[in-house]
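Re: weekly structure request thread

Next one in the queue (247 aa):
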Amino acid sequence: MRAELLWSPRLLCERIADASRRARRLSRLRGSVASHLKAGHIESLELLELLRPIVVNTIHDIGANVGSWTLLAKAIHPFARVEAFEPLNDHAEVFERQTTKLPGIKLHRVALGSHNGEGTMNVADFSDASSLLPFAQGDGLRELRRERVTVRRLDDLVGAGKIPSPDLIKLDVQGYELEVLRGARDTLGRTRAVIAEVSLVECYRSQCLFHDVVSFMADRNFRLHALGAGTVVGAPLVQTDVLFLRS
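Done, posted below.
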């Protein structure tokens, strides 16, 4: 125990309350395919639970990383089909190992954007922060390498019948959200909900920010419905998860 907790009862109570809250959230996943996830992997838990009254047959996990969010989604919506998109080879291999025994999951090793072609992923020392955008100065990220990846428009994949239209889209693409959404205008017309990680400060050069995404979604009849449970209150915001619902 840290020494300052012994002479600060209020700080001690706050720490106990935080630990209790984390434990309660994790307990809701007990016995599910996501039971092994840590607190840092379940930021979207409450947002996914808010969608339980909606029929969610198909989910697009865009920026699937190593599969933690897909497992969380399958825990809350076990009968949904997940079409996952992850271009980085290291992440994709872990994703397939984590999900290989689960039905209704398909991984596509491509990035999504507004144009078809190729792009360069800037791979960070904290690989979850890797992006098709270059890192902003002073963001604390260090580039380890670059990896060429295939980039596709979601509208083209869905329009060609290769992938079913989603009821729910999840976006975690490190500042590239608007490019993905611009390549999915038609698909959004058949989508009921979007969960996105959005930034309020620039972590990547030329990235979109919270207000850009909210404005784009509003123009397509989506309203901001909820913020993720991890949203900071009473302090400057950097990133948060948001849930949009079709109006």
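The chain has eight helices and ten strands. The helical segments are 9-27, 45-50, 68-76, 89-99, 154-159, 177-182, 185-188, 210-219.
Next request, please.
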